[in-house]
Amino acid sequence: MTNAQGPEGPYAKALAADRHGDAAATRALLREAADAGDDRARLPLAGTLIDGRGGPVEPEEAVRALEPLESSNPIARRMIVTALALGPGGWGAAALRRAAHGRTGEREAALELGLLAADTDQETGRLLLVRAAGQGSGHALAALARLAASDGAVWPGLVQQIEALGRTGHPLAGPLKTLLSGLPETAAPPAAGEPDWDAAAQAVGSGPPARAGTPLSGSPAIAAHPGAVSPILCDYLLGATWPMLQRAKIFDASIGRTREDPHRRAHAASIPQSMMDLPMLSIQARMAAAACMPLDRAEALAVLVYQPGDEYRAHFDFFSDDDGWASAEIAARGQRAATALAALNTQYEGGETVFPRAQVSWRGALGDVLTFRSLLEDGSADLKTLHAGAPVASGWKALASLWLRERAVGPDGAAVRR
């Protein structure tokens, strides 16, 4: 082990700085370690560059940090594609790179491009999903089952395959089996074949499609956006994040840490952009666009699951100045200006999102998005945005939630809760 990689080297110092919550020092030391050839630093360095921890968002630098690992590390390949989508090359460059990964036989590349291509080029999307399912992807099988249900017919053995998927713990196996029951059988499963990777890259490279909204309230500004997220993307996000769910907590400034609270009863998973793949980033981009906000204003995408009796009592999404972490957040990126919520399932009773001061109640169909502005035109907080997630009466409710800020991550990076 060289001195640069030893216990006193920059990588070890970066780990110590991270434990102490010094994001700027962590980032600088990881960069020093990567420049010295320590490959252990490349993934965490790229994470800081993509998420804007300890400095500005630098997607091009993230790509350069990761490229030495691209041929050998699937996480590096995923992160490179995410960074490309966020950078100047945008979705076109990201789709071409992921297609290049797919040509080498990578299953996750076929899955990601298949999920997204199905929106605009269903034949190419299905072929990619068939390929990924044949390589053992349960997410691809779930997507094919959802597409079969939309076609109104199933192939022999599909229901049994979904039952087997349920035994792996996939949360949507039961709902998908119900969706498929009673449908007539076709003669054969979807045909497999060599995908047209150029067609896949072209289908995905134009970026997420836009969906028009319908105003539900003018003051506060609340709108519904039907079908903003495709059903197969909803299924994918929920299935991919299910193992990450933990009891939701609130940050208590009086004790300086998070804790569980009866005000918010749910399970939650937060996904920073450095952990996203293209389908997840596409969902985040669709939600941001529905709120008429650029993607660089987005906080981490969150998935929320409410079991029977769970609720989120009346609250605001904007920050309250506290001379602490919330004030640091306001200084770093401004207020939470808007919120977007996406309905990830519909098999539940109760659980409406309610705005008591605006007399608005929303329960979206699968893939619908609700948006609202938390600030008035003068930048002050809109007290009419008080809202709540009503208790779930039966079944379980799943949402994706996205907060959007007044400004992008600045040169000092996002504020860090120590």
Write the layout of secondary structure elements.
Elements: H1 10-19, H2 23-35, H3 42-51, H4 59-66, H5 74-86, H6 90-103, H7 107-117, H8 122-134, H9 138-151, H10 158-166, H11 173-180, H12 197-205, E1 214-217, E2 222-225, H13 231-241, E3 246-247, E4 250-252, E5 257-259, E6 267-271, H14 278-290, E7 301-306, E8 312-315, H15 325-333, E9 336-343, E10 348-350, E11 353-355, E12 360-362, E13 369-373, E14 387-389, E15 392-395, E16 397-405
Antiparallel strand pairs: 1-2, 2-13, 3-6, 4-5, 6-7, 7-16, 8-14, 9-13, 9-16, 10-15, 11-12, 11-14
**Number of DSSP strand runs:** 16
What's the Cα radius of gyration? 22 Å
Fourth-tier CATH superfamily name of the largest domain: q2cbj1_9rhob like domain
- The helix fraction, in percent, is 25-40%
Main β-sheet, in a few words? 8 strands, antiparallel
Can you tell me the CATH topology of the largest domain?
Jelly Rolls
Class inferred from helices and paired strands: alpha+beta
Whole-number tally of structural domains: 3
Low-pLDDT stretches: none
Architecture per CATH nomenclature, i.e. the level-2 architecture of the largest domain: Sandwich
Strand order of the largest sheet: 1-2-13-9-16-7-6-3
Distance between the termini: 32 Å
Number of helices: 15
Any idea what the shape is?
A: globular
Describe the model:
- α9 packs across α10 (158-166).
- This protein has 418 residues and is of the alpha+beta class.
- The model has no long low-confidence stretch (mean pLDDT 93).
- It folds into three domains: 3-88; 107-205, no CATH class; 214-405, q2cbj1_9rhob like domain (Jelly Rolls).
- An eight-stranded antiparallel β-sheet has the order 1-2-13-9-16-7-6-3, with helices on one face.
- It is built from 15 helices and 16 strands.
